[in-house]
Amino acid sequence: MISDFFKSRIASFAHALAGIKSCFRSEINARIHMVMTILVVIGGVLFNVSRIEWMLLIILIGFVWTAELLNTAIENIADLITNNYDPRIKRIKDMAAGAVLIAAICSATIGLLIFIPRIIQFVSRFILH
Fold first, then answer.
1. The whole model's pTM is what?
2. Distances (CA, A) of 8 to 14, 17, 74, 125
């Protein structure tokens, strides 16, 4: 019984990873999010962000990825329902895409608040010296 429990948890985890992999392969925006995630992590290391800032960055990265995965799932469900144009399906897809846009804008804004002062300080060191 315990073995079945762990097997089912491992299977659930494998299905979740397959979903992430599928999204990454099929969605150009997921690849863009991956590039941005890598740049944020590199920037965080190079600019030695604080623990609180790391927590914010991790939450925001998760926020954007969650929105993107949910958007992709909604789009796939909508396409499964019909391939014909339907203004209701368009509205649903637009709202899901809007959620990703809001997540990305909020994340980028906070990212800029964290990184811009460090970038300015870094550049000013080279200009002054």
1. 0.88
2. 10, 14, 25, 55
Mean pLDDT, range 73-82, rounded to an integer: 95
Chain centroid offset of residue 59 CA: 10
Q: How far apart (Å, rounded) are the C-alpha atoms in residues 100 and 103?
A: 5
Asked whether residue 113 carries a pLDDT value surpassing 90, the answer given is: yes
Whether 60 contacts 113, CB under 8 Å: no
pLDDT at 25 over 70: yes
Gyration radius (Cα) of the chain, Å? 19
Q: Is the pLDDT of residue 4 over 90?
A: no
